[in-house]
Amino acid sequence: MLGRTIESVEVLHPRPVRRHLPGAEDFASRLTGRVFTDARRRGKYLWLPLDSGDALLGHLGMSGQLLVQPQDAPDERHLRVRFRLAASEAGPPLELRFVDQRMFGGLSFSPAGAEVPAELTHIARDPLDPEFDDTVFVGRVRRSTSGIKRILLNQTMISGVGNIYADEALWLARLHGDRRGDRLRAVQVRDVLDAARTVMTAALGQGGTSFDALYVNVNGQSGYFDRSLEVYGREGEPCSRCGTPIRRVSFMNRSSFFCPTCQPPPRGAGGGPARGAGRG
Ligand SMILES: [Zn+2]
Fold this sequence. Notes:
The protein is of the alpha+beta class. The chain has helices at about 25-30, 135-140, 150, 165-170, 185-205; strands at about 5-10, 40, 45-50, 55-60, 65-70, 80-85, 95-100, 105-110, 245-250, 255-260. It folds into two domains: about 5-120, MutM-like, N-terminal (N-terminal domain of MutM-like DNA repair proteins), CATH 3.20.190; about 135-260, Helicase, Ruva Protein, domain 3 (Orthogonal Bundle), CATH 1.10.8. α2 (about 135-140) crosses α5. About 35% of the residues are buried.
């Protein structure tokens, strides 16, 4: 779809463009005739820079999908916005379709947002972003009294690491999520950052983690990284490193999964031995 001119924009339901305050018609007119030049992401947001220096900003919410379809493909049941894209040397005309059943997500037009939409400047870079500053991150973690898992989920510190990938990265780095940032050595913070990159790169290679048929790529395919998860969703199963049954505990209305042997809880936190968990 990159390099193709947007021939028309059809908003089939107003809710997904509700954040574009001038309304659906204005949304369509600003995008018509423009060309998508790239596809980028920060945290849970994605944006498609335009040749005008503006961008189409999107958030998939709970059930949103962006699909690239041939123009003759039948409409999806929950099709909300259709972009007709002209033919190019890459092939015949296409459509970019925003499909969303529950409509918590949406699309908006971000003026001058090609580089980074203003709406996203409060969100930290993703660890896979080449401009992510490891040293700054390590310093911020080591000044924080929060647990390392809470830090990994804090979008102002680091983005793109959700609950599943945080648990997987902590297992890989052999750190319990309750270990306080200010009690970690720099090398431990670097280890968990490397682990997050390893997990995220592997997950992207497998199309992500789909527990739900709604999580699909632009071709409508689900990821299968859930089969490669080491701890998440594996309560009671043996740790692949040491054989200890994986444990699950409640965490911020969700769950945390960890190996109590490889990832001992910090001293005083209860729930297991404190081996190796002292101030470093
Ligand atoms: Zn283990």
